[in-house]
Amino acid sequence: MRYLIILTVCLFVAVYADHLIVGNVSNRVVLANQTKVEYNAIPFMKRVKYFFYSQTDNRLIQGIQALDTLHSKASINITAGGVGYSYVNLRLKSERGRGLSYDIGIYVQDYFYH
Ligand SMILES: *[C@@H]1O[C@H](CO)[C@@H](O)[C@H](O)[C@H]1NC(C)=O
Ligand SMILES: *[C@@H]1O[C@H](CO)[C@@H](O)[C@H](O)[C@H]1NC(C)=O
Ligand SMILES: *[C@@H]1O[C@H](CO)[C@@H](O)[C@H](O)[C@H]1NC(C)=O
Questions:
Q1: 15, 90, 91: which to mutate for ligand 3, most atoms within 8 A of CB?
Q2: Which UniProt keywords apply (predicted)?
């Protein structure tokens, strides 16, 4: 008799939703950069775009808020950097045949509280 036990442990740690809100976006932080990222739809295609932000002073990113203003099935995740870093790279993927429209806010520590 043979037992075949396949144990698949799937640990999927990803922020995968139409909205992405990580870290602090309200407590003792200031909006360092707000960018509206917009791309037109291409029929039958999913669009993949990257948004890179790098802080010019030495303050680290405290929070990131990215809102899907189309309320579509687009997804967004962090591919590099993020909260605790001075930079972030975001990967945006549209719903098939739809455009991308994200309102991205990058929050950093307020000088006042340093
Ligand atoms: C957000 O800020 C508050 C107040 O400064 C702090 O207590 C909390 O730990 C912070 N949360 C995160 C996720 O950084
Ligand atoms: C915000 O960041 C984007 C991407 O890095 C940049 O193109 C834009 O100029 C910045 N806006 C401001 C007001 O600094
Ligand atoms: C972001 O999503 C893409 C596509 O699903 C995936 O390849 C990538 O590993 C994800 N990145 C993170 C940090 O989860």
A1: 91
A2: Signal
Q: How confident is the model at residue 8 (pLDDT cuts 50, 70, 90)?
A: very low
Pairwise CA distance, residues 43 & 40, whole Å? 10
Residues 49-95 have pLDDT tens digits of 999 999 998 899 999 999 999 999 999 999 999 999 999 999 999 99
Q: How far is CA 46 from CA 65, 79, 94, 96, in A?
A: 22, 18, 5, 4
Going by alpha carbons, the residue nearest to atom 6 of ligand 1 is 27
Domain boundaries, the chain: 20-113
Instruction: Please give the pLDDT value at position 93.
Output: 96
Give the burial class of 62: count Cβ atoms within 10 A of its Cβ; 0-12 exposed, 13-18 middle, 19 or more buried. Answer: buried
**48-54 vs 61-68, strand pairing mode:** unpaired
Contacts of 64 (CB under 8 A, 6+ apart): 20, 21, 22, 23, 25, 78, 82, 83, 88, 90, 104, 105, 106, 107
